[in-house]
Amino acid sequence: MKMTFRWYGKEDPISLEYIRQIPGMKGIVSAIYDVPVGEVWPMEKITALKEEVEAAGLELSVIESVPVHEDIKLGKPSRDRLIENYCQTLRNLGKAGIKTVCYNFMPVFDWTRSQLDYRLEDGSTCLIYDEEDIAKMNPLSGELSLPGWDSSYTKEDMKQLFDDYAEVDEEQLWENLTYFINKVIPVAEEEDVLMAIHPDDPPWNIFGLPRIITTKENLERFINLYDSKSNGLTMCSGSLGADRNNDFVDMLKYFGDKGRVHFVHARNVKLIGDKSFQESAHLSEKGSIDMYEVVKAMHSFGYEGPIRPDHGRMIWGETGKPGYGLYDRALGATYLNGLYEAVCKSNK
Ligand code: DNO
């Protein structure tokens, strides 16, 4: 496995220099943030990002994400132009030598939480998802905002989106995803780009909107939409592991053996009740995911791709983007590297 770290570009308070000082850090996961969703990422912006990362002694390993426009997920007539733009962005990335692209197909909302600064017993804070609090949230109020969401929607846009999605159930979303995959994967193949869809977070429907990248069965259905190595997965332990019916380690091994795992997000979650969870420290004993088993699984299928410590808690007084501080993610990376070294050496 290759250790990487998410970096939000020049706006990120965490510098590339600091990231490089984390032992074993090899690569950066980033994106172009100032091109509107649906437009082509210009080659100059891609190469500028790549050069900046390389000048800091790191590699630009993964793009997370090239976002998919809502009209594509909704199957609107404008999708053809938007998919063509998406393909052109992939060509540009491929030509620039960036070969792994993460994206998701979640309607309207990316990852969703009910609280960003839940205080744990040790005084650190973390993101949580509380099913009852979520049930009380009204996405049409115009007041909700989370770090993972596109905040550019007005109240009216949101109302329109919800009206549009009223016509899209899970099967229709599968159809729209299939249409997208059939156009995009051949281009990814030509460019040797590995596409890695991110599971829905959390992996169940929210606010009445359909979500489909959620379970082993659905991931299987997904990879079978297009039989190509380029049509792969981001295995995110925190997202899939939030559903107690998902056995994350089993899923990781299963799809890893099929050669479809191209990116791993390691995050621990402590499951509370049926559909509620806290994001915990990476250490196995702090959450419901056994990270040792996760690393063993990756080793078992000879995983050489990128992995990143996903959300961390806020510790040591750090402030900033919830889930994306330096300290706890650096501890996570170090812990994962330690597990990996031990697993490799004990299998010699
Ligand atoms: C959360 C991330 C997600 C992820 C997208 C991928 O922190 O794992 O926001 O980047 O879902 O498209």
Automatic annotation (TrEMBL):
GO terms for biological process: D-glucuronate catabolic process. GO terms for molecular function: ferrous iron binding; manganese ion binding; mannonate dehydratase activity. It holds the Pfam family UxuA. It is an enzyme of class 4 (lyase). Belongs to the mannonate dehydratase family. It comes from Staphylococcus muscae. Its cofactor is Fe(2+); Mn(2+). Its EC number is 4.2.1.8. This is Mannonate dehydratase. Coiled coil: none annotated. Pathway: Carbohydrate metabolism; pentose and glucuronate interconversion. Catalyzes the dehydration of D-mannonate. It catalyses: D-mannonate = 2-dehydro-3-deoxy-D-gluconate + H2O. Keywords: Iron, Lyase, Manganese.
